[in-house]
Every structure is written in structure tokens, then in C-alpha cells.
Amino acid sequence: MLVVALASLAAPQSALARSTAVLSYPLAEVWPTAVRFVRVDRGYNVREKDEESGYILFDLVEGGKTYKASLELFRASDDQGREATRAVFSIPDLPRHYEAVLLDKLSAKVRDERGSPAPPPPRRPPGERAPDAGTHGPQKELVR
After folding, report:
1. pTM score, whole prediction
2. Complete domains list, the chain, with CATH
3. Alpha-helix residue ranges (DSSP H) falling in the chain
4. Are 18 and 89 a contacting pair, CB within 8 Å?
5. Strand 45-50 and strand 55-62: pairing?
6. What digits encode the pLDDT tens for the residues 97-133?
7. Is the separation of the CB atoms in 84 and 77 below 8 Å?
8. Cα of 41 vs its chain's centroid, Å
9. Residue 70 φ/ψ, nearest 5 degrees
């Protein structure tokens, strides 16, 4: 009995399929665009959304069937050090390419609405450290 339970735990799970992309725009700019993309552009029924937690649960209709899907948005940094958003689509019961297509279309919509991403922050020369907190200017002594 224990062997069967362990074998089922080791079996691959299709429900873990997720597709991810990093968008080089701050989360505050991506969130409203993502909601419009899911609700208006794609016409999906939004079951639940929470901006603070960064998720949208929606129903995707394909081939006459309805599939539960989600979009999660996380604060991130892109490879150039800009404030960015990690977007994760998950549609467990459909092939992964459905998620990839949605990511591509969401990325294009964000780019169309927001324009080019902000330039990356200036890079520090090698060996230069960021200033430590507490070393900004002269120290003041507290008098009691």
C-alpha cells in the first residue's frame, strides 16, 4: 500500500505547468493592463482578482470547454537591473503553448500601452560600493 502511494507522488503532474516571463515595467503599470487584457481583450470571465496579492483567476473557454486559469504578477528585476514584473500564466488542463501565447500577447499589450521600458539604472564601476546607511554627511550628537 505504501509503495503505491509513493509511486503516485513521484508521477509527473500536468497541473504544475506554468509559463513565466519578465516584463521590464513596474508592477503598478502592468497590473491594470493585465486586468484589461484578461477581461476586455480576451473576454475571459474573471472569477477573482486581488491586486495586493497579485493574482487574477479566470475561466478560459476553448473548444466549447471551460478551463480554470490564473495569472500571477510578482515584483522583480530584469537582467539590466530595472524594476520589473514577473508574469506567470497557469492553465493546468491545456498544453503549455496556450500559456506561452497569452504571455506573448500580454507582453505586446504592455509594450503598446506603456511604450519602451525605462532605461536601466546606471551601473557602478567595478569595486565601487553603494554608500552605507548612516554614512551620509556628518553625524549629529543628540543632546539630552
Report:
1. 0.72
2. 15-114 (3.30.530.20)
3. 2-10, 27-36, 96-114
4. yes
5. antiparallel
6. 999 999 999 999 999 999 988 888 787 677 766 555 4
7. yes
8. 19
9. -145, 155
